[in-house]
């Protein structure tokens, strides 16, 4: 029977749980409420998101923002868009994700006029905390570096649908700094050329980690990014978001010490540069006690207000993120914090400082006296610390929540207590991966009860693919219990051998045997005989045999789901994961054969490894989310001329390979940190690199000589530097059948009944 109602009214109460917030934060929220775009503007912005997401249903939903004193459909544009997502997710069984991770599954949404009805009293969904935070200081470079407005518009839509209302907004700040230093502090464009990093490395020049690397920035970049930032901010404000703008932390151009010779400026230590190369490292810090500090901080805030026309009063400043202060005197630390905040407040009376708490965990410099000095240097309620350490607690790092709270809380007043939880969110270095994690994490901002994750995962698989399939649900539950719910290990940065190849003499690798969780056979556990920075052992914290079983379930369900883009992404990703761990084991078998002086075995196994790299490249080519081409082409599309194309492409290629500087015989200390499993990259770079290493292994055995480590390094570094400067073009669209390719690779490498597979596993 046709629904007699032409439209659905979904009443969502998405109010702030401000009773738990400090009075000053509550006051800030009140200010933001007064300064938000008008209800009509936010409603229009929400309707525009719906038109882009579900154009066929644009008349099926009515959005309305009313005063909190009455029945509430939504308190901001973000809230009513999040309400739309809540309805589509929980009533229509849909799923929303990034295009690269399979996109959105919306075919489960009934046609207009047949949408599931909501109870006439409405549905109350309340935020558990005022803010849903999003981004990391480096996401802007690892993921957003080459985005145009079209891509940014889709991302802001995604943010609103997930309920994100506190995103970082860092784009275009170099243009603001250029104007500030030129107009207020008598610097020329050439004075600033060495201050900014290249387009792919701006996050780290902003934090004072490096300078000049990948630059200089052309003027067109400054102009384009400023225009883009204004569009980003306008849309965020239209939706009622609270974009977080940057603030001054003390990082200054070298030219400032010549223009103001009496200024107190010190040079920071080396940050991962080979041989402390001053051309790229050791940036300049203006002392907080210098009168210029507050003057520059104020000028920067005021220029942003002038260019953007408004602010949401929250500013991010990460003092000494991955840089150690030159002095550990608590009084100095306190003066630095006070001056940093004073610079913000001088430009905006209602300023609130937001900072990452990551530095308190990884840097031993920050002992309780130094931490207390910084936290107590800012007025009560004016500092928000993101406890990123909590996100890394399962990775073996100490949880800082209680420590920071104890330090921040004074004996009388509750200082900037971390105990007043103001936000929940996601602070990943890069996005467009692991869609299940983002789906669950974004929902947590609206859940006030513990979630039954097993039940949630069952529903997730149905929403993700648009239909319930028992084998797929079983597969996801295996993955949840095996990988996501692990308790006997830790998540680690991707150090798989293929994408982070060992730079180490194979004689230093000690192979000891223990029972394997992979094939229930003796497993090689890798230990380095000597302390070395050249090889970080791949980390495996789960039973690979169980993940292989999950992959088998996914493949078995393929005939029913092969047309589903979300399924194809997950299938490629899961197959990649399994074969990457297989490659790690294969590499150690190569080393074992080398140490046994088995030339034939070493040659056979190393060729098997290289074949696997090529096969993985073929697999990854089956989905748009695993291609190198779009990353490089998006970089080139922002260029105005041939010279800029070369520079931007070099930036894009360098970030995902060598990353930072190197010498002829010494690779970058950050090599492979930005590694990617992308088709094109495996075939064109990772495979040839591994082939060079295996060549020197074979020559060592055949000639009865030690492994030529320096020669290997020279040839590998030469390959890498050459690849960084190459201009060859890679596909921007996928090719190949994901299901057939996954089946083929499973049979080739993982099926024990395959004689060739059995031979390799038992070798």
What percent of residues adopt helix (DSSP H or I)? 40-55%
Integer average pLDDT: 86
Question: The CATH topology of the domain at 494-511 and 536-762, please?
Answer: Four Helix Bundle (Hemerythrin (Met), subunit A)
- Span from first to last CA? 65 Å
Shape: globular
Quaternary form: single chain
Q: How many runs of DSSP E, i.e. beta strands?
A: 12
Uncertain regions: pLDDT < 50 for 5+ in a row? 1-21, 68-72, 390-401, 410-419, 486-492, 513-534
State Rg. Answer: 27 Å
Q: Taking strands numbered 1, 2, ... along the chain, how are they ordered across the largest sheet? A: 3-7-8-9
Number of helices: 29
Secondary structure class reads alpha/beta
Strand content: 5-15%
Query: Superfamily at the CATH H level of the domain at 494-511 and 536-762?
Result: N-acetyl-b-d-glucoasminidase
Q: Give the C-level CATH assignment of the domain at 494-511 and 536-762.
A: Mainly Alpha
CATH architecture of the domain at 494-511 and 536-762: Up-down Bundle
Topology (SSEs and partners):
Elements: H1 23-35, H2 39-53, H3 77-90, E1 131-134, H4 139-142, H5 149-161, E2 166-167, H6 173-185, H7 189-193, H8 202-206, H9 219-238, E3 245-246, E4 251-252, H10 256-259, E5 265-267, E6 284-286, H11 291-308, E7 314-316, H12 330-347, E8 352-356, H13 359-362, H14 368-375, E9 383-386, H15 388-391, H16 401-408, E10 423-426, H17 435-443, H18 453-465, H19 470-484, E11 509-515, E12 522-528, H20 544-556, H21 558-561, H22 565-595, H23 599-620, H24 629-637, H25 642-655, H26 681-703, H27 709-725, H28 738-750, H29 755-762
Parallel strand pairs: 1-2, 1-10, 3-7, 7-8, 8-9
Antiparallel strand pairs: 4-6, 5-6, 11-12
């Amino acid at each position: 029977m046709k629904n007699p109602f032409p439209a659905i009214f979904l009443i969502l109460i998405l109010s702030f749980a401000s009773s738990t917030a400090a009075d000053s934060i509550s006051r800030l929220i009140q200010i933001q409420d007064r300064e938000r775009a008008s209800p009509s503007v936010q409603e229009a912005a929400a309707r525009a998101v719906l038109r882009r997401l579900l154009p066929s249903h644009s008349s099926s939903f009515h959005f309305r923002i009313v005063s909190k004193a009455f029945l509430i459909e939504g308190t901001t544009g973000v809230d009513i868009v999040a309400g739309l997502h809540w309805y589509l997710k929980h009533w229509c069984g849909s799923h929303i994700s990034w295009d690269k991770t399979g996109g959105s599954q919306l075919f489960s949404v009934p046609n207009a006029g047949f949408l599931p009805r909501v109870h006439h009293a409405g549905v109350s969904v309340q935020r558990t905390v005022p803010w849903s935070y999003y981004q990391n200081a480096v996401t802007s470079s690892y993921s957003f570096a080459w985005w145009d407005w079209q891509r940014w518009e889709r991302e802001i839509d995604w943010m609103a649908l997930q309920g994100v209302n506190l995103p970082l907004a860092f784009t275009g700040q170099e243009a603001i700094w250029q104007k500030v230093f030129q107009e207020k502090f008598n610097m020329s464009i050439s004075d600033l050329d060495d201050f900014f990093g290249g387009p792919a490395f701006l996050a780290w020049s902003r934090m004072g980690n490096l300078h000049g690397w990948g630059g200089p920035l052309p003027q067109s970049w400054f102009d384009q990014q400023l225009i883009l930032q204004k569009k980003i901010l306008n849309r965020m404000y239209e939706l009622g978001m609270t974009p977080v703008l940057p603030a001054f932390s003390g990082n200054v151009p070298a030219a400032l010490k010549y223009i103001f010779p009496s200024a107190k400026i010190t040079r920071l230590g080396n940050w991962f540069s080979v041989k402390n190369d001053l051309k790229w490292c050791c940036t300049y810090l203006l002392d907080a006690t210098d009168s210029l500090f507050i003057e520059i901080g104020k000028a920067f805030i005021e220029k942003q207000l002038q260019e953007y026309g408004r602010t949401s009063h929250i500013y991010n400043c990460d003092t000494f993120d991955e840089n150690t202060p030159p002095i550990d005197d608590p009084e100095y630390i306190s003066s630095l914090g006070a001056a940093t905040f004073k610079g913000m407040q001088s430009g905006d009376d209602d300023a609130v400082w937001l900072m990452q708490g990551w530095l308190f965990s990884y840097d031993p410099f920050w002992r309780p006296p130094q931490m207390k000095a910084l936290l107590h240097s800012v007025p009560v309620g004016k500092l928000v610390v993101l406890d990123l350490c909590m996100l890394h607690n399962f990775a073996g790092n100490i949880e800082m929540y209680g420590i920071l709270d104890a330090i921040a809380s004074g004996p009388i007043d509750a200082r900037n207590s971390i105990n007043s939880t103001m936000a929940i969110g996601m602070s990943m270095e890069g996005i467009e991966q692991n869609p299940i994690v983002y789906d669950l994490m974004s929902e947590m901002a609206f859940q006030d009860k513990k979630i039954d994750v097993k039940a949630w995962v069952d529903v997730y698989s149905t929403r993700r693919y648009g239909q319930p399939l028992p084998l797929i649900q079983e597969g996801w539950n295996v993955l949840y219990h095996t990988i996501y719910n692990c308790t006997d290990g830790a998540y680690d940065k991707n150090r798989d051998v293929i994408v982070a190849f060992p730079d180490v003499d194979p004689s230093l690798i000690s192979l000891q045997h223990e029972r394997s969780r992979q094939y229930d056979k003796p497993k090689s556990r890798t230990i380095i005989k000597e302390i070395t920075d050249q090889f970080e052992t791949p980390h495996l914290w789960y039973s690979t045999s169980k993940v292989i079983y999950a992959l088998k379930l996914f493949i078995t369900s393929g005939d029913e789901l092969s047309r589903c883009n979300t399924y194809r992404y997950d299938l490629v990703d899961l197959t990649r994961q399994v074969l990457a761990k297989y490659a790690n084991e294969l590499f150690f078998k190569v080393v074992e054969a080398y140490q046994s002086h088995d030339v034939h075995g070493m040659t056979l196994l190393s060729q098997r490894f290289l074949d696997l790299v090529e096969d993985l490249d073929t697999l990854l080519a089956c989905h748009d989310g695993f291609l190198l081409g779009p990353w490089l082409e998006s970089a080139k599309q922002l260029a105005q001329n041939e010279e800029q194309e070369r520079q931007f492409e070099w930036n894009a290629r360098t970030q995902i390979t060598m990353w930072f500087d190197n010498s002829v015989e010494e690779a970058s200390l950050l090599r492979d940190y930005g590694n990617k499993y992308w088709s094109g990259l495996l075939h064109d770079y990772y495979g040839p690199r591994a082939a060079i290493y295996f060549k020197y292994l074979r020559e060592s055995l055949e000639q009865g000589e030690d492994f030529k480590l320096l020669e290997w390094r020279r040839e590998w570094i030469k390959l890498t530097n050459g690849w960084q400067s190459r201009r060859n073009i890679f596909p921007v669209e996928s090719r190949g059948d994901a299901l057939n390719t996954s089946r083929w690779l499973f049979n080739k490498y993982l099926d024990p009944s395959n004689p060739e597979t059995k031979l390799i596993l038992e070798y």
